[in-house]
Amino acid sequence: MELKCLSRASVQRVGAEGLLMVLSSVPFMLAAMIGDTATPPLWRMAAAGVASISCLAAAFLLLRRPQLGRLFGGLALAGSTIVLIPFFESNPITVLLGAVMIIGAGYALADFRPCMDELQRSSPVDRCLQRARWAAMTMSGLVLAVAIVDRGSHFLVNTALMVSVGVTMILVMHWIWRRFAPVAAVALIMVSLVAICAVIFSFMNGYFRLTAFIVGILAILVLPDSTEEQDDRWWKILLSHPARVLLSTFFALCSLGTLLLLVPGATQVKGISLVDAAFTSVSAVCVTGLTVLDTPHDFTLFGQGLILLLIQLGGLGIMSIATVGMHALGRRMSLRQERLMTSMTDTDHQNLVVSLVTILRFTFVAEGLGALALTGLFHVSGDNWGQAAWRGLFTSISAFCNAGFALQSNNLIPYQGNPFILHVVALLIVFGGLAPATSLLVPRWLAGRPVAVGVRLVLVTTAVLLISGALFFLAFEWHGALSGMTVADKIHNAWFQSVTLRTAGFNSVDIAGVMNPSCLIMTCLMFIGGSPGGTAGGVKTTTIALLVMTFWASVTGRSEVIVQNRRIPPATINRAITIVSSGALLWLVMVLMLEMTQQIPARELLFEVTSALGTVGLSLGATNHLDGIGKIILMIAMFAGRIGPMTLFMLLSEERSVSVTRCLDAKVSLT
Prior knowledge:
The chain is mostly helical. It has a domain at about 1-230. Helices cover about 70% and strands about 0% of the residues. It is built from 31 helices and two strands. Strands 1-2 form a two-stranded antiparallel ribbon. Strand 1 (about 560-565) and strand 2 (about 565) form a beta hairpin. Helix 19 packs antiparallel against helix 20 (about 385-400). The longest helix has 29 residues, at about 350-380. The two termini are about 50 Å apart.
């Protein structure tokens, strides 16, 4: 069964040939659509010609001579980029989107690894089918995209589209000829020729794009998935990998939240822009807390309820809730689903449902107790019971999920003199940032009883970061952001700010007024974040703890990292290095993008990107000054921070069986 799945996946790669053949006409479409002149200049047509020929060469060589195929694919990307230069110059906001698409295409091209042994064993008919299917899907999408973008029906654009339709139909007829008996094949080819004639007729009479789109859709519907019986469908392929599941579920929830926040009843104003709705939705789902709108004043009670629901679903995870729901309804998961969930939640296969039930139970009990305590405290502070209950529930869920959303325009600054509110919120943040299983072991650890190595690392690192963060903030801001407070209030607020840097995003002092040393310490703490299994973001406390212990082992001349008489495997240390490296790389890319597109001081941009990538939500005030492209960059940072930078890179790769090889050691100088 495993061999069959692997073989089918390899055969589907043949479809890339059909995709590239259809896309070979795109450079000429771009050359015609870009610019003010009716006739594209010679240099643009030359670049389009090079890109088109290179794309065709890549289509024929990618499977047969992969290195040459990737080379020609790179030339096609380069030529298309040259064609797009005038468009990027006149539309700077599209530079980011274009860069992402070009980088993504280049990565996919470089990572393309056909398994030639399996392809040679596969059926030639199935290979022809995959070329035809991919060509039909690409052609239909291309026609639809051109119909949306190019309203002028440029002759060169339509001619290039006609070539794409012709290539698709040739591939379809080739499959028909290989698949069916001669009589049936001739009959079906005649039908295909009739379709081609209809497209040509419509080309000369003005409704070409509609006809081409219909022909493409019919081809997709008629062509089977495979020549063999198969159970997998595209959604099963999408949901068969933990990284894909995380991305698809969070993306779907962000999209749904965006649409719901665009409903007129969700906002006090007449309507908000799509970018602002998407930013708020992504910030809530990714439990970040960065805002471009005033939550208590710009959103109605319905809109605030939507934000709270998005925070809860984003904090707990849709898949965890769905798994417990299936168990409650008496439905069993398949073995594949169980393996997927155990991989995502890092729990034992046999205790999956029990662990998830414990997570939900602990979450709702903690949020409920926090809501009751905060309701009473808000009422004592002057709110009526209704307002206090809503604020208490909202703040409790937001704090436990480490979201940082508040129903006060200036967050928790009005309560900087109320230590009870600060410490209740801080307690919710700490326990939300820990895994429920870890939180339940805190009394055991405080009593001095033995706990597992992983739990000990989490608790010790968390305690060190919380205490050191409070001391640093107290020292640097004694005469700064904390000035004017009593000594007791300074200690309470310094502790609260240290806690909220664990990716919560609440603030009881004016963050925009902190000094540079405090800003640097806050940036480091935000990048580290919370602990594995909790709702917090960042690279996680255990990752930093392992790197510190690895550093100390190297300095003291030890070849292994030992904790409580337990050896940390090299694979775990390598994973920690990968997590920090991928996070730092993504952070650098986001900072550079904002530096190139925004006229905002570098200090604020560095802080803002770290806050978004660590899903913290604290801001020096730069978020409200971002334009559309800046908000999109921060949305990408928040999304990547929630699913994890390493998970994002895993999505671009495939699981491959790696053979164990024994090679000679290489000597590399490091100093």
